[in-house]
User: What shape does this take?
Amino acid sequence: MGTVMAVGAHTGDAQLTMGLYLAKAASKGHKIVTLDLTAGERGCPPHIPMDEFRQLNTESAAGFAKAFGGDSVVLDTPDGELNYSQELAVKIGDIMRSYHVDTVLCHWKNSMHKDHIAASRLTQDAVFFASLPTFTRPLPPAPIKRWLYAENWEDSEGFAPYMYFDVSDVFEDWKAAVRQLYLTEHSRDFK
Ligand SMILES: [Zn+2]
Assistant: This one.
């Protein structure tokens, strides 16, 4: 069995746009991991302080992953300040190595959100650094064989879907897990 890692710019991105793939993979016995590059704390509603919202989003992400027997990792990059750097790409690659990831899901390269564009490039380079046997790191390379972009209305410019899969058997499980993200903007639609 393999390990699927979904990399999102903000908590909510991976869970909403890549979550059905994760649910399907988990139903087939694969391990799933969500990696949120920021906690999306600047999307806090007026009545919740940003620090508190960061904590709530981090807990929400953990709850989502746990619903599928998986793990959640949330980096401490400030929301809105996600930028490309090789240092961060190597760090993400090391996380991929630590989970022995074989499938990576990520943002498409074009987006209306700067953090999503950075996340796409960071993930692309992280896959390179995680896979390259001659790039010496403390852990062995991750056996990444599959790399897919998620469909997302925010990242739709130039995106042409070509892979479809039946989610009818996991749709309700995914919806229940999304309710773990009760404080994010989008998850209110799932109440
Ligand atoms: Zn986002």
